[in-house]
Amino acid sequence: MMAGLTGWHLLVLVLVILLLFGAAKLPALAKSMGQSARLFKGEMKAMKDDDGKSDPAVDVAKSSASDQGVSAPRSDSGTTT
Q: How far is residue 9 CA from its own chain's centroid?
């Protein structure tokens, strides 16, 4: 069983991280974690949007581009050529 974290637990955790990475590298570490979280959130949203439904605007763009003889941008479905 795990008890809730108290203020002392968080303080010790911050001190350990500070000792491991050093004060100079903490801003870069925080920025990297924020970018990773943002990228993950965007990918999850894209997967949720793609799940089970097609965007009618994309279908219209594909058909009008093929009418003009221009290849429409493809969405990668995970297959390799």
A: 29
- Give the C-alpha separation, 64 to 79, whole Å: 25
Q: Which DSSP string corresponds to 24-63?
A: TTHHHHHHHHHHHHHHHHHHHHHHHHHTT---HHHHHHHH
* Alpha carbon distance 31, 15 (integer Å): 19
Report pLDDT digits (tens) over 37-47: 999 999 999 99
Residues 6+ positions from 66 with CB-CB distance below 8 Å: 72
Using alpha carbons, select from 37, 47, 38 the residue that is nearest to residue 78: 47
pTM of the predicted model, to two decimals? 0.42
Per-residue buried b or exposed e for 51-72, using 16+ beta carbons within 10 Å of the residue's own CB = eeeeeeeeeeeeeeeeeeeeee
Is 21:29 a contact under the CB 8 Å cutoff?
yes
